[in-house]
Amino acid sequence: MTSTKVKERAGRIAFTAAAILCIVAVVAIFVFLIVKSAPAFVKLGVFDFVFGDEWQPSSSDTYGGATAGTYGIFTMIVGTVAATAGALLVGGILGYFTAVFLAFFCPKKLKRVLGATINLLAGIPSVVYGFFGVVFLLPVLALIAPNNGSGLLATSIILGVMILPTVVSLSKTSLEAVPRSYYEGAVALGATHTQAVFKTVVPAARSGITASLVLGIGRALGETMAVVMIAGNAATYPTGLFGSFRTLTANIVLEMGYAGELQEGALVATGVVLLAFTFLINVVFGALSSRAVRSAAKPKKERGGKRSAIGRGLAAFRARVWDFFGNVAYKGKSSYVGMCAAIASGTISGVILVLVIGFIFLKGIPHLSWELLFGKFEFASEKITIFPSVVTTLMAVALSLLIAVPIGIMTAVFLNEYARSGNIFVRFVRGAIDILSGVPSIVYGLFGMITFVKIFGGSSSILAGSLTVSIMLLPTIVRSTEESLKSVADSLREGSLALGAGKLRTIFKVVLPSALPGIFSAIVLAMGRVLSESAPFIYTMGSVIWATPSSYMDNGATLAVALYRLAGEGWHTNEAYATAVVLIVLVLALNLLAEWIAGKLNKKLTGDKK
Amino acid sequence: MKNNKNETVFGQNVSVKNANLWYGDFQALKNIGIEIPEGKVTAFIGPSGCGKSTFLKCFNRMNDLVSGCRVEGEFKIGEADIYDRSTDVNALRKNVGMVFQKPNPFPMSVYDNVAYGPRTFGVRKRSELDELVEESLKAAAMWDELKDRLDKSALGLSGGQQQRLCIARALAVKPKIILMDEPTSALDPISTGKIEELCEELKKTTTIVIVTHNMQQATRISDKTGFFLLGELVEYGDTDDIFSSPKDERTERYITGRFG
Fold it and tell me: What is the CATH number of domain A70-367?
């Protein structure tokens, strides 16, 4: 009796501890960001900082004495909003119609191919998109632009393409979740296919589509590296389609490397403002979409009531927007507009996807060589190799997964197996996970820089970078593990307990093995995330591409960071293409691996009958 | 399970006095008392939601898993008070096995399913496990069907086979009592017949308490029958008496099919 009881208690404590770690991570992020930015806010004045439109930092400024520079980020706030809006305009509309196309107007065979490709595209590193912008989009836009093509238009297009997969796959899922009977009901009343789709099915899927757009906005808002590569980055208001501008994220990554005391504080403060923005978006739109869900579930009369003025305004705005979409799609007696828009969007999306991948592959594959991948780096020569980055990437993936996977899985086990819903601690844990998933990756980079890097002697290292990114991976792992734990039937748990097995044995022998496919996919997706992120690494792990690291205390650049460096420096474009190919192939391979593992294990778990 | 001082000895008979059970504010069992004899099949019948499954799940304390569930009264298995603070729930469940409404084999091989219980209680030796698996599968009358596919996934079996495998799995830890919660409601008539035959065989060594919706089943296999209605045990006695000359009018109306 005793030893089992001790084990059970130890298990409970360990699982709870993991959950506590998630809360600690969130608290640490907030505390460090606030502590680091508070002196800057005090010195510069919150109002002047946020609404000042001149940014001319001086790296010799300190918290004491007079300041030589000027620190106002309003131009960047405007820039961020403009770029996000642009991205939503491009990616949101295109994504919405593409989802409708895929769900209702697409031949079956094409649908599978296109759907799968779009899913894979969600995993492509943002630096690759930025690079594509530099080598393809900018030269094209330069034909009509007064400059090299960079600026708001280019950024909007690239960000739009980046959020496209998110919008399409989530919207498509919610469109397909609408009961078939709605469609049949409409058609049975004499509606055409297009009418039934746009007037019956789409409205029923509104909340899901809104949610997909919110996620898209979040991604656009927090994007860093791709933007830095094509926005122009002047600290001015975006004037016109080709005006150079700077986003909040770009501001951090551009200047953090050489910032002085006050400047660093101001950059952390920029991160705080960015974070505030992210939460504002999530709260506002989250409320919006949950209201949509609620109002869809309730009859009309019960609505209204205690709604605030803002809430009413938002609801009215939302209704207006939806009517607009509905009407555009449905205009005219022929009602072909919607169908045409859907088909056109589907085609455009398909072309974009083929273009991004095809262009990079065509340009990159000829430059792939043994020498590039595994050669020795020689200075002052044309011999470029990404071998150090390959090593760095492997080390970073291994360590960050080693940290994040156990904590993530244990937290998920705590939430699903131990927690009682409604418990306040449980709500804190869930809140912490939600917050972590909303934090833009550059903010993780900031956090890692002012904590881990400082702890390990002030210089960046693979250790510091891996620790940073492991926090970022937590929400992904916790959520998908919890999903797969939820899908394990309770009857299995009962079966084990009824045989006299304890909770711990039930979890390890029955529940976790049954949830393995989901957990494996989560791990592989987390790998993909480490591969494709670059913003959190640049100042925590370093961006040195020529030295092969020999220990975790060395610094190094992951492949994604190496691509940023190679592309940014301009004279290694061919190697950059090849690196992009390597990155894409790796990410695609990981995605396929995840599906394969899940499929294989699923087959094993559901028996060999079929 | 090393507790030399006072290892609880669970008997084969169940004795319940003044049992009350609440789910939150809802009282699901009202003042129930019952004596379930050793080595017999006892059936609980009654309409859906009458509390018969809830009552059954008190015997191995599976109700502990339901949040907001509160139990009062005296539950004794043999001489052991199972709701006593000192009771080891895991040891209780080892002695009081359970078969569920829907077959719930674990997603592992047939062998590992049956060996799960013994392994839980520390049996590691392969020869010992082999023996237990064979013995249990024979006791569940499925050794001949399964001996060549012990390493195949249990999920590949038919529904009826899965349910008998679950019985074998429960038998592998040598329980004194087996609780069956509508074990045949998800099965076809032939599989149902096999499980009923099995009950006849098992009661030689094990007390069986079975919840069933099917009154014919109760008459076919049980020695004692309890009729539950709205959380009360309306009538309890020998199966023949209950079905031929019920004392309570409600019992009569139920078994003649006038409600439920």
Answer: 1.10.3720.10
Mutation target for A interface from B116, B136, B167, B181: give the one with most A CBs within 10 A.
Answer: B116
Phi then psi for residue A180, to 5 deg, are: -55, -30
Beta bridge partners of B78: B10
CA atoms within 13 A on the CB side of A375: 15
Q: What is the pTM of this model?
A: 0.84
A514 part of contact set with chain B, CB < 8 Å: yes
Per residue in B24-48, pLDDT (tens digit) is 999 999 999 999 999 999 999 999 8
Nearest to A498 among B60, B91, B107 (CB): B60
pLDDT at A298: 46
User: Quick one: closest CA in A to B169, which residue?
Assistant: A499
The CATH class, in words, for B14-255 is: alpha beta
Q: Tell me which of B8, B148, B153, B165 to substitute to probe the interface with A (most A C-beta atoms closer than 10 Å).
A: B153
10 Å CB burial of residue A136 (0-12, 13-18, 19+) is middle
Contacts of B92 in chain A (CB under 8 A): 500
- Write the CA distances from A472 to A142, A212, B159, integer angstroms: 37, 21, 44
In angstroms, rounded to a whole number, what is the distance separating the alpha carbons of residues B150 and B155?
Answer: 12
Question: Two tokens at A533?
Answer: 């992120």
Residues forming a β-bridge with B227: B45, B235
Query: 140-179 in B: which are within 8 Å (CB) of A?
Result: 152-157, 166, 169-170, 173
Q: Do B106 and A492 touch (CB under 8 A)?
A: yes
> In a mutagenesis test of the A interface, which of B1, B90, B113 is the best target, namely the one with the most A β-carbons within 10 Å?
B90
Least CB-CB distance to A498: which of B3, B67, B97? B97
Task: Say yes or no: do domains A2-44+368-606 and A70-367 share a fold.
Answer: yes
Does residue B17 contact residue B72 with C-beta atoms inside 8 Å?
no
Residue pairs spanning A and B at CB distance below 8 A: 91
- pLDDT surpassing 60 at residue A300: no
CA A492, distance to chain mean position in Å, is 35
Tokens 């709205």 identify what position? Answer: B230
**Chosen CATH of A2-44+368-606 out of 1.10.3720.10, 3.40.800.20, 3.30.420.10, 3.40.50.2300:** 1.10.3720.10
The average confidence (pLDDT) of chain A is 85
Name the least confident of A162-176, A587-601, B192-206: A587-601
CB B9, CB B86: distance < 8 Å: no
| A419 DSSP 8-state letter | P
Q: Which residue of A has its CA nearest to B117?
A: A499
Residues A568-581 have pLDDT tens digits of 776 788 888 999 99
Between CA A399 and CA A406, with CA A401 as vertex, the angle to 5 degrees is: 115
The verdict on B66 touching A (C-beta cutoff 8 Å) is no
The helix (H) or strand (E) run that includes residue B26 is strand B26-36
pLDDT of residue A609: 40
In chain A, where the domains are located = 2-44+368-606, 70-367
**Model ipTM value:** 0.87
Q: Which of A8, A3, A5 is nearest to A507 (CA)?
A: A8
> Under the phi-then-psi rule, with left for phi > 0, alpha for psi from -120 to 50, and beta for the rest, what region is A231?
alpha
Are A499 and B97 a contacting pair at CB < 8 A?
Answer: yes
A495 and B104 within 8 Å at the Cβ level: the answer is: yes
Q: Are B78 and B12 in contact (CB under 8 A)?
A: yes
